[in-house]
Write a structure and sequence with these properties.
about 280 residues, alpha/beta, TIM Barrel, eight-stranded parallel barrel, 8 helices, globular
């Protein structure tokens, strides 16, 4: 059983975007016009479950994704690798060793070979029933079922067209962010003019280190920052340039509220809205 805490998140609201929504007529990054995705509309706080609700189920597992959906997260984040036979699976590490009973690089296996392994490490592993390595199809189905945004971080893939086709077929194209290194984001943008793409910022680098590349991508672009990299002034500056700003990973509700007040577009967390004493999402 999950450890339950009665924590209210009704007061956590995202501040309205500081930059006005700008015309999409000219998609050139040099022109000063940018598109914004409607998925970021609204003033409710937008929390993203890091690798699913990984404080309460094994990370990047079916159970973690479903638990995040049941607790009403705005989005669910996962990491994606491509198998030798062109399937896409959810796992954070390049190698199987830390979280499963397999070993070696995940990209050296076919999907059927990966099906022989199971997740053997993680929170509440002893009560987790479905311990298989999830496919991206299964992850997207859970996001769609619970009305959660799909936050997809590319780790190692070859077939960008196939990944985008899965996202479109899931019905989540307009409720999805694709993240990763800048080269992968260019590959995605070359195939899809509209889906939001984001690179990832890491401390101790200043937030401006992530801007030179992402500002060259037209429309619906942003950076997911390690939260100490940005403050209210930085987030305001990003929005003025038509750049989304997510922050990771914040597990303290007071710190989260601070970044919501700063205007962050979403907050990645392992804990918040930590955990309610009921399941707010009954969409099974």
């Amino acid at each position: 059983m999950f450890l339950m805490f009665a924590v209210s998140v009704a007061m956590l609201k995202i501040s309205p975007r500081t930059a006005d929504t700008i015309s999409v007529a000219d998609t050139s990054a040099q022109s000063g016009t940018y598109a914004y995705s409607s998925m970021f509309d609204g003033e409710d706080a937008k929390f993203v479950a890091h690798r699913g609700y990984s404080n309460y189920a094994p990370e990047n597992s079916i159970a973690a994704f479903e638990t995040a959906g049941k607790f009403g997260f705005w989005g669910i984040e996962t990491d994606v690798y491509e198998t030798t036979d062109g399937a896409f699976v959810c796992m954070h590490d390049e190698e199987l060793d830390r979280t499963t009973n397999g070993e070696g690089k995940i990209t050296d296996y076919s999907l059927s070979q990966l099906a022989e392994f199971e997740i053997d490490t993680g929170n509440n592993i002893e009560t987790t029933e479905n311990k298989k390595i999830p496919t991206v199809n299964e992850y997207l189905e859970i996001c769609a079922r619970y009305g959660c945004a799909a936050i997809v971080e590319i780790k190692t893939i070859r077939n960008y067209d196939a990944l985008l086709a899965l996202i479109r077929d899931s019905g989540l194209h307009d409720n999805c962010v694709v993240m990763g290194n800048i080269n992968d984001m260019w590959e995605i943008r070359a195939r899809d003019a509209d889906i939001p793409v984001m690179t990832i910022g890491y401390t101790p680098a200043p937030y401006t280190d992530s801007l030179a590349d992402i500002t060259q991508i037209p429309n619906n672009r942003g950076v997911l920052y390690n939260y100490p990299q940005v403050d209210a002034a930085a987030i305001n500056s990003l929005h003025e340039q038509g750049i989304y700003c997510g922050v990771w990973s914040i597990d303290d509700k007071d710190v989260a509220q601070q970044y919501i007040d700063y205007g962050a577009d979403f907050v990645v967390t392992n804990e918040i809205p930590a955990v309610l004493d009921y399941m707010p999402n009954e969409n099974e």
